[in-house]
Amino acid sequence: MSALPTRYLGAARLAVPAVGLGCMSLSGMYGTPEESISLRVLDRALELGCTLLDTSDAYGPFTNEELLGRALAGRRDQVVLATKFGNVRKPGGAFLRANGDPAYVPQACDASLRRLGVDYIDLYYLHRVDPQVPIEETIGAMAELVAAGKVGHLAISEAAPATIRRAHAVYPITALQTEYSLWSREPEAETLSVVRDLGIGFVAYAPIGRGFLAGRFSDPAQLADGDVRRQHPRFVGDNLRSNAGVAARLRAIADARGVTPAQLALAWLLARGDDIVPIPGTASVEHLEQNIAAASLQLTQEELASISAAFPPGTAAGDRYADMSTVNR
Does the pLDDT value for residue 204 go beyond 80? Predict the structure, then answer.
């Protein structure tokens, strides 16, 4: 397998592999795999040069950062480590509230540093914008972490274009992380042009539709009881049945090309711009290897246009989240 090409995030040109690893599925959100399996996925990711590891204190909550801390012991310098704060969850994982209080920022960072077993974080995200706190105050507190040497670069997740501009005016934002895939093309309406105008990199989470576009399941009963996807509108009832047709359409195109649906979805996304870095998650070494191989898949302009036409904006049935008020604000 060839080495992953390098891409650069933001004006600071933070070097990262073209495909990163979203670590959420390694502990407690899509069911809980054996830790030995999760550690093997992380080991294999580093072996293959997939060294952008993306986590959050909300995953578990807390257990995902602790897992990475165990996995990275003695090899901190091999990775670009990204984590997030501000998406406060109940012990069972349900969303509680966003917290962007400036006093909370250093507390959250110090707690993440302890769980991760490191003394600095490469890319630190505000996971969700707190509507009760001006974004300038939150970003200002985050900038103090950079000055203290605890954080290398600042980032923001699921923020509206106006919020991104305001945040960037306080301190340079290196990356925006937002859901982007063949069935979630909302960033194309305005967000992509805003981050490009400001020189901010784009990190695409859920680039395979939380696994759905890979065709790995078609019935909620296939999801573990604690799997958070059971709470997503696109994964239930009539929405699920409609979206199964979306996944089948992608599989037909992928089969004709001789690749997996996940690889096709990732290759399409990678071709949207060199400033876009998808971070697919998986708890499978096989799927990890397939995802990384997608970086070598070249699609012609005709193929890209055909895929885009087959999955226009608004293709998916159902909202991305049950409560859309928590995103794009």
Answer: yes
Q: Which residue has the tokens 């960033």?
A: 187
Query: How many angstroms separate the CA atoms of 136 and 118, rounded?
Result: 27
Q: Distance between the two ends of the chain, CA-based, in angstroms?
A: 40
Task: Give the tens place of pLDDT for each residue, 48-82.
Answer: 999 999 999 999 899 999 999 999 999 999 999 99
C-alpha to C-alpha distance for 206 and 216, rounded to whole angstroms: 14
Under 8 Å between Cβ of 166 and 191? no
State the Cα torsion 301-251-50-280 to the nearest 10°: 110
At 322, list the tokens: 């049950």
Which residues lie closer than 8 Å to 44 by C-beta, 6 or more apart?
285, 288, 289
For the entire predicted model, the pTM comes to: 0.95
CB-CB contact of 129 with 100 (8 Å): yes
Angle in degrees, CA 271, 274, 275, rounded to 5? 120
d(CA 314, CA 149): 42
Q: How far apart are CA 18 and CA 295, in angstroms?
A: 7
What are the residue numbers of the active site? 59
pLDDT tens, 271-320?
999 999 999 999 999 999 999 999 999 999 999 999 999 999 999 989 99
Residue 324 — pLDDT band, cuts 50, 70, 90? confident
State yes or no: pLDDT of 225 exceeds 90: no
